[in-house]
Amino acid sequence: MTPVTDSSRTLLRTCPLCEAVCGLEVTLDSADHITAIRGDQADPFSRGFLCPKGATLGHLDEDPDRLTAPMVRDRATDSWRAVSWDEAFGIIRERLPEITRAHGNQAVGLYLGNPNAHTVAGALYVPLLIRALATRNLYSASTADQMPKQVSSGLMFGDPLTVAVPDLDRTDYLLMLGANPLESNGSLCTAPDFPGRLKALKQRGGRFVVVDPRRTRTAKLADEHLFVRPGSDAYLLFGIVHTLFAENLTDVRVEVEGLDEVRAAAAEFTPETVAARTGVPAETVMRLARELAAAPTAAVYARIGTCTAEFGTLTQWLVDVINVLTGNLDSPGGAMFPTGAALGIVRSRPFRTGRWASRVRGLPEAMGEFPVATLADEISTPGDGQIRAMVTVAGNPVLSAPGSSRLDAAFADLEFMVSVDRYLNETTRHADVILPPPRIVQAPHYDFALLQFAVHNYARYSRPLVPLGDNLSEAEVIARLALAVSGQEPTPGLDPLTVVDEIVIAGTLHKAGMADRRTELLGENTTEQRIDMMLKLGPYGEWAGGTLNLQVLLDNPHGIDLGPLQPRLPGVLRTAGRKVELAPRQLLDDVARLRARLRAAAPEMVLVGRRQLRSNNSWLHNVAPLVGGSNRCTLHMHPDDVARFGIDGQVVVKSAAGTLTVPVEATEDIMPGVVSLPHGWGHSDSAQAVAREHAGVNANVLTDDSLVDAPSGNAVFNGVPVTLTPA
Ligand SMILES: Nc1nc2c(c(=O)[nH]1)N[C@H]1C(S)=C(S)[C@@H](COP(=O)(O)OP(=O)(O)OC[C@H]3O[C@@H](n4cnc5c(=O)[nH]c(N)nc54)[C@H](O)[C@@H]3O)O[C@H]1N2
Ligand SMILES: Nc1nc2c(c(=O)[nH]1)N[C@H]1C(S)=C(S)[C@@H](COP(=O)(O)OP(=O)(O)OC[C@H]3O[C@@H](n4cnc5c(=O)[nH]c(N)nc54)[C@H](O)[C@@H]3O)O[C@H]1N2
Ligand code: SF4
Ligand SMILES: [Mo]
């Protein structure tokens, strides 16, 4: 341990970089520089776990390329200058409302990127910006990620936020498809030290099977790894469902609607039929079904590899169908619904999609959003409702969205763009104004979203470790941006944040019948008072018969253990009949699309993605200790394919959407016929010095934005047909 002297201090905070929500011990010197980061041993959930990204948060903080003042671009010279906050908001107030006055609200698009799921500003203040813009042109990383899970959960359970997660610490059998938590640290399954939890599963005698076209580090840890043809997981899972019915292995323990319809839908997907398409032998499919049925407890878990695919929603649906059929939904050791501590949105009507459709391609909305795969269409296609201005918050869609060359070109044609971001990067270079959030250590932290998906109920709040100084909090940036896009000036003497917080607090208390308790809310500012209110009204809250409030979390800065996951059916259901909808009409209809593709000729070579431990989507490549070594942008390819195509060093990869030249890394750990390229690279023109040196190529030049998973509109990143030629 470094001794804590007068000039240095060690403080606690949650890591905001990924879904594992690890507790950190951050040592700061007298000038508030981060001098050391360790895992917080006393955090009851993460128990000291730390990965290389969390450990290098100090380097990110000291990055000389990180923006520390608002930036404005001169379009004529394409040059940037730092300006005051007042000047930055003044420009926005002048330019953006002019565009909506002339062309209507739809003329402004909003893209919300991944880090919004990790910030208080994203959770509590971005909704204000959404309301201020009042546009249907709302896009986010969700449709490049987990929308299939949300749509299937919404249709089955009535609420898209009611997502079942594997009860990782108690299950006897885990079937994992398309996830690699040894690199990603887990997703839609908040579990710090996911690797340690998987080892514990094995140590207690459990079994763990991985299905992935690559033999990943996770697959190597597993008891069994099965190669699967990319994009074919829905067939594999249907084969399991078929077997469960055919061999009378079902044991449904929750109230469901639609059991017969599922049986009928699965009838044609026999293990033999699906084997040719998936590459998984029929006997193996049947054995998986028998093992899942026989295990005392079991959970099926499928993540990004299966979501960002042509049949993402059907796959996610079948995951929970199997969890139901084997008696494991909502049961300890199975797939369970976590209970987060903060009051969530209470949905009164069952979830549905397609309440409106996108202008150009007629794609249905889901959760109020259009697919990011059609953002370029909406900017580039003239007509009434065309997007002419964009706001991006914490996103880099020029690297992360499918068919991103089109998006890059479309952004260049915008009349005006504002980005809230830490960096000048591939996306924000198109902005007229960039508004930077403060240092991570200057932000408060509570995981509103991620703790709803945690494998153990838990809560932790961190106050800012360092005062804001001249910076604005990201909450205030968003609140002032919301005013500016409406053409409003802040009222002198009134803090815009306080104004919006008071409105939210009054509305929430009124709805809860607690209007007279405003003065009881604790906290240093109105943001904290909102958090106190959400905790008090939440399931463990002081105002709901429990004991939780902000003070309890402040008194327990390592976080508090709220116990193992508990059964929550039927209370958590929001379906019309308050039963699990096992066969939603919309999904049964989509089975026709799946059936039609069963016998389609398979492309010779297909592309999938992969994540790297020391990367974070598109934005940690400027942190020197993280890049290099194994963290490089290379195309993984089986040695037989390398030899067959006569490739030596570099290869030209061509898809329907674009062409890239990339270095090849031959590895036995990938299926023949499949190549893998990580996303988030492609920094050759970057303003960030380190990232530019480790540029790599943008995988999304190859992905095709004309293709989406029909029910959710989700992007298709895996199973992209490609051709390969030696460079
Ligand atoms: N081919 C392919 N493409 C993919 C994927 C894939 O597997 N394959 N995965 C998809 C997935 S799952 C996701 S989630 C998306 C992610 O894609 P995006 O939503 O575009 O998110 P990031 O690439 O993580 O970019 C985050 C941006 O936020 C900025 N930032 C970081 N912290 C903060 C902050 O605190 N506040 C603000 N305002 N900005 C911040 C960073 O500088 C960066 O510009 O990519 C998707 N794209
Ligand atoms: N280090 C690191 N951690 C991260 C991120 C990061 O960029 N870097 N990103 C974060 C984000 S935004 C997310 S959403 C999560 C995602 O977390 P995970 O879901 O664990 O994502 P990956 O590690 O990409 O693992 C996906 C796996 O799916 C496999 N796959 C590809 N196609 C198919 C297919 O058709 N079927 C099957 N069965 N498998 C397939 C790939 O080979 C890969 O091994 O990770 C988060 N954590
Ligand atoms: S696993 Fe995720 S939350 Fe934990 S230290 Fe690493 S980046 Fe941070
Ligand atoms: Mo993601």
UniProtKB/TrEMBL annotation:
Q: What sections of the protein cross the membrane? A: none
Q: Name one GO cellular component term.
A: membrane
A GO molecular function assigned to this protein is:
4 iron, 4 sulfur cluster binding
- InterPro entries attached here? Asp_de-COase-like_dom_sf (IPR009010), MoPterin_dinucl-bd_dom (IPR006657), Mopterin_OxRdtase (IPR006656), Mopterin_OxRdtase_4Fe-4S_dom (IPR006963), Prok_molybdopt-oxidoreductase (IPR050123)
Question: Known Pfam families for this protein?
Answer: Molybdop_Fe4S4 (PF04879), Molybdopterin (PF00384), Molydop_binding (PF01568)
Q: Is this entry keyworded Metal-binding?
A: yes
This chain belongs to the protein called: Molybdopterin-dependent oxidoreductase
Question: What does the record give as the organism's lineage?
Answer: Bacteria, Bacillati, Actinomycetota, Actinomycetes, Mycobacteriales
